[in-house]
What does this fold into?
Amino acid sequence: MFLLVVVLTVALAATLVLLVRSRRPGPIPVERESHLEQLFETFPHALTLRHLDGRLLRANAEFTRLFQYSVPEVVGVNIDRLLGVPGGERASGGERLLSSASKVWRQTRRRRRDGSQVEVSHTGAPLSLAGKTVAFYEVYHDLTQQLQAEATITEQQRLLEAFFTQSLDGFFFMMLDRPIHWTPEADKEALLDYAFAHHRVTRINDAMLAQYGYTRDQMLGLTPSDIYAHDLAQGRVQWRRFFDAGRLHTVTNERRADGTPILIEGDYVCLYDEEGRLTGHFGIQRDVTERSRQEEALRESEEKFAKAFRSSPFPITIATLSEGRFLEVNEAFLRDVGYPRAEVIGHTALELGLWRDPEARTELVRRLERDGMVREYEFVSKTRHRDRQINHIWAEKINLQGQECLLDIVWDVTEWRANEEALRRSRQELRDLAARLQTVREEERTRIARELHDELGQALTGLKMDLAWVRGRLTRPQADLAERLQTLINRVDGTVDAVRRLATELRPGVLDLLGLVAAIEWQTQEFGRRTGIETDLDLHSDGSAVDDVRATTVLRILQEALTNVARHAHATRVRIGFTQTRERLQLEVADNGRGITPDELAGRRSLGLVGIRERAIGCGGALEIEGRPGNGTTVKVRIPSGAIGAEEVVA
Ligand SMILES: Nc1ncnc2c1ncn2[C@@H]1O[C@H](COP(=O)(O)OP(=O)(O)O)[C@@H](O)[C@H]1O
Ligand SMILES: [Mg+2]
It folds into this structure.
């Protein structure tokens, strides 16, 4: 542009000489003058001709356009003030132009008619006629656009530089020492030989140095031979493919300066000169080691969980929290509700009518929002197959792409519930039956005991009395008969004792006569006497009343426990503890024998222990049996006393 201005200016100088001359008397070549006028007017920059004293002689249309003054406004005026020429510049302006034979060029600033400033280049030169300066001309060229363009370019360069140096991606240039013709006909192997020795890293940013852990000095100047030292053959294959295509996107396994592996994802682009020769290339690359490790871990974990999700035998769903719109459900869920997948995904549980009571879902969401999770929440659903299904739901609040969702597992407990109820009922029936049997047995025993005692006892007593009477009637010579009678009487006595003992065992009279504590005492003494095992009794009673059923239960449990000690324990000592309060009865039988084993405890064939437990439970109590190998067995029963039981029933 500046060149153009100078050329035009020189051309003009010649023209103006003619112009000025034409103002003087003499023959005027009219045609020529009009050409010059035209040239002056159409000159593409603001152009003025000024008298030596500074007054304006002429100005062209471009001057009007640039400074907004019309020609008549400025002709005959010294325009320096109008255009805001600074004092210093003004003083040296015309004079300097005049004193100098050469052109002057400067970049400066001028004022328009509306007061705005404009950057211009200002060129001027004296106009001499016959060796004498007669006027001077000036050309103003509007620099606004040019300056703007320059500023833009500078800014862009600055940005590019910043982009290169500060990018978090690694940037580099590798340039060949001299360009090569990479064409299909070329001897590519030879060119690769050259490139591998002469294609050098010329620029590199900090991010790239950080990726490899090298210093700039270590990396600048590296060639492919250095970079691919660990696998030259592979490097050449890759390089060849790259040069063929002109660009390359790859993910490569590389090494850091310290030898650790690094996974690099890079984009590489070849650079060419005007002749199409390859001059080098630049690359952008990222360290994707961590990212790919994370992706792999994520993929693995997703696969694991997706499998668990899909193959779970329990229905699992993921739905939006607020609406319950299904995003994902598994096969078990579809089977359970009986709808095809397409009718479920994108629809809500309420739309499908799965919740019999929509309020129950609102409550579930409320709990989830409060606690983040819900465990074993029970709700009743309606599926395609079933009008009423009882479920337990386990739910977690999860966040999927910024959306609050609910992940839940549902367990259909309808059948389980029914079974549980049936089992409970059947157990209760069994217990009632067992209790009834015990009662019947006790009644039977009581009756037999009474009959033994009363009928047989009385008959035997009668028999004994009769025998005694017969013995009284005997005479001396019948001594042997008397002796035989005495033996008979003794035998009847023994039988009476046996009958009494039998009757007592069937139904200890002490129980009725003296109560539970005395019966326990009597039973213990009997046991010690019969077995020779040392007994140790520890009785506490606050004297409160015990009903017959409970008293019998405690006594029978004691009898069975003691029988077991005699039969199985090989014990030398047994301790019997009994506490009777208003609240409860507690019996403990602890021997020092071999100790019952867990297997024996779990044995179902052993009716004795089962009987004990049933009796205890039948009275609302609990039984604990503990065996210590070689260290004895303890049987512990706790039964709420009748009084409390009655209150409980009332309550
Ligand atoms: N005090 C004890 N010491 C050691 N073993 C015992 C004791 N009580 C019970 N057992 C073991 O537990 C089993 C079950 O007892 P039980 O139900 O009373 O059946 P049974 O007495 O008819 O064998 C016994 O066969 C015995 O092996
Ligand atoms: Mg037994």
Notes: Residues 511-650 form a domain with the Heat Shock Protein 90 fold (CATH 3.30.565.10).
